[in-house]
Amino acid sequence: MIVSIIHRYSLQMLGSIYLITCNNNKRYVGQHGKENPKRRFREHINYAKRGSQFPLYRAMRKHGVDAFTFERLCTCPIENLTNMEAYYAEIFESYVWDSPGGYNAVWCSESPMLGVKLSPEAIEKMRQAKLGKKMSPEAIEKMRQAHLGMKMSPEAIAKRTQARLGRKLSPEHIEKMRQANLGKKKSPECIEKMRQAQLGKKKSPEHIEKVRQANLGKKMSPESIAKTTATRKANKENKLTVATLLPDIRPTVEP
Q1: 58 near 51, Cβ under 8 Å?
Q2: 170-221: pLDDT as tens digits
Q3: Collapsed DSSP state (helix, strand, coil) of residue 46
Q4: 8-114 has which CATH code?
């Protein structure tokens, strides 16, 4: 019985309660549907940059993002998030009507977006609105820096793997990926990492058969044949060079 309860709890989706504190000691308490709420802080920063008029975002524009600190207070099952958020908001006196006052503008249990699910039509409208938009190099660099050092949990990796099972990329998507990688060369460090990651791995018979089937009927271009021939010739010459430089270590047989 105890084991089943523990197992059932381990399968629950966990969320988190977080605290944002300004250097003027005013606070904001929020909730996030993931165990790691760091992404939520970046979303708050983006809302502030877009001109949102909630008290927290006005304060971010006034004092600057560097004036704010972010911390996770706790994790709990998602169904308990609202109660825990309200509890911590009272503890830290983070409502705008508290003294000295905070940045929570509504009761935590009365958030206007709480429990709201977007309809398929709304999701499609949002998707269409973003089509054709390209991020600036500065925005891409900021995202890259924000994700440096972040590692996905085993549970998140397993979920992503399950979500992708059975998916097949469209020919258009495959062509876009091919075009995006044309002319790109991997650094020696990247190649070495890939080589190390593959050491000791053995491909299953099913994988080998899939690769064989995928290559049936394919013909190499003259350029590919020339590159392959040159690579094999260079490798052979390198082996011969190493062999001539090594000392003769064969045991001598005395007469």
Answers
A1: no
A2: 888 888 888 888 888 888 888 888 888 888 888 888 888 888 888 888 788 8
A3: helix
A4: 3.40.1440.10
Task: Tell me the domain boundaries of the chain.
Answer: 8-114
| Rounded CA separation 52/217 (Å) | 58
Model confidence pLDDT, tens digit, residues 164-177:
777 777 888 888 88
Q: What per-residue string of b and e applies to 215-235 under the rule 16 or more CB within 10 Å gives b?
A: eeeeeeeeeeeeeeeeeeeee
- CA–CA distance, 157 with 34 (Å, rounded to integer): 14
Scan for tokens 């054709």, then name that residue.
132
Entry field: residues in the chain: 255
* Integer Cα distance of 82 and 110 in angstroms: 9
Query: Residue 20: what pLDDT?
Result: 93
